[in-house]
Amino acid sequence: QVQLVESGGGSVQAGGSLRLSCAASGRTFYKYAMGWFRQAPGKEREFVAAIRWSGGSTYYTDSVKGRFTISRDNAKNTIYLQMSSLKPEDTAVYYCAAPSFDTPVVTTTDSYDYWGQGTQVTVSS
Predict the structure, then answer these.
(1) What is d(CA 65, CA 10) in angstroms, rounded to the nearest whole number?
(2) How much is the average pLDDT of 24-36?
(3) Which of 6, 35, 50, 97 has its CA 20 to 30 A from that of 105?
(4) Who wins on pLDDT, 54 or 97?
(5) Do the beta carbons of residue 32 and residue 98 sit within 8 Å?
(6) Beta pairing class for 68-73 and 92-98
(7) 117 pLDDT above the threshold of 80
(8) Taking 70 as the threshold, does the pLDDT of residue 55 lie above it?
(9) Helix or strand or coil: residue 56?
(10) Could you give phi then psi for residue 36, rounded to 5 degrees?
């Protein structure tokens, strides 16, 4: 059974930093892209960042470019999201996601089949 478990969320003031982790179990995803999404209250789940299996290709939504960094440790079957210069608008539940097969599209929820339970990130002004 595939499980994705996020950790590292919390409450910070604007300008602060957090590092999210997502540990996968049940299968390995080292050949697949993995991604981070977020969902704020009353809003749809949106793409944040994704990384291809080699780690050489990363993708970000415009609002987080230059502030967030996605990375992965294939040996640990884990991905990370380093978030810096956090803003109140970054407040959301953050989810990691993985596909059941490799996909060329990594920025949409439809590309992913497995989801974590989410971790809350709250940024106060």
Answers:
(1) 21
(2) 85
(3) 6
(4) 97
(5) yes
(6) unpaired
(7) yes
(8) no
(9) coil
(10) -120, 135
Residue of 33, 108, 120 whose CA lies nearest to 70? 33
> 84 or 76: which carries more pLDDT confidence?
84
- C-alpha 101/C-alpha 27 separation (Å) is 12
The predicted pLDDT at position 105 comes to: 87
pLDDT above 90 for 102 = no
Cα 118 to Cα 107: distance, rounded to the nearest angstrom: 18
Characterise 124 by phi-psi region: left (phi > 0), alpha (psi -120 to 50), beta (else). Answer: beta
Q: What is the 3-state secondary structure (H, E, C) of 102-116?
A: CCCCCCCHHHCCEEC
* 32 vs 120, residue with greater confidence: 120
Q: Quote the CA–CA distance of 11 and 124 in Å, as a whole number.
A: 8
Instruction: Return the structure tokens found at 3.
Output: 């499980």
Query: Considering only CA atoms, which of 27, 19, 18, 121 is closest in space to residue 79?
Result: 19
d(CA 107, CA 92) in angstroms, rounded, equals: 18
Q: Which residue in the block uniquely carries the two structure tokens 């991604």?
A: 35
